[in-house]
Amino acid sequence: MKINHHKSRQFKVKNTGSGDLNVTIGTLVAPFSVTGGGTFDIPAGGIQTVTVTFQPTAKGKVSQTLTVTSDDPNNPSVSIDVTGMGKK
Questions:
Q1: Which of 4, 2, 26, 1 lies closest to 13 in space, CA to CA?
Q2: N or C: which end of the chain has fewer CB within 10 A?
């Protein structure tokens, strides 16, 4: 990605259970940002869309891990690796 330009990718958190799902989306630091995150409840059958944006300010590879936690007894925590490459 060119320096000072941005690119976004989305992922969805879906509740396939029968009750509300309490979810917390972790944070990322610059040059990444998260929109649609924080802590929220997803009703049964519902979906929450989360957007991760990469906007490099320098040349080079940057990697971070975004953690999604919930009160789901089978999958209480999921780690998502995010990587971007700043180019001139």
A1: 26
A2: C
Give every CB contact of residue 37 below 8 A, 6+ residues apart in sequence: 25, 26, 27, 50
Burial of 76 per CB tally in 10 Å (0-12, 13-18, 19+): exposed
**Looking at domain 7-80, what is its CATH homologous superfamily?**
Immunoglobulins (2.60.40.10)
Q: What value does the mean pLDDT take over residues 35-48?
A: 96
Q: Which pTM does this prediction carry? A: 0.91
Mean pLDDT score across all residues of the chain: 96
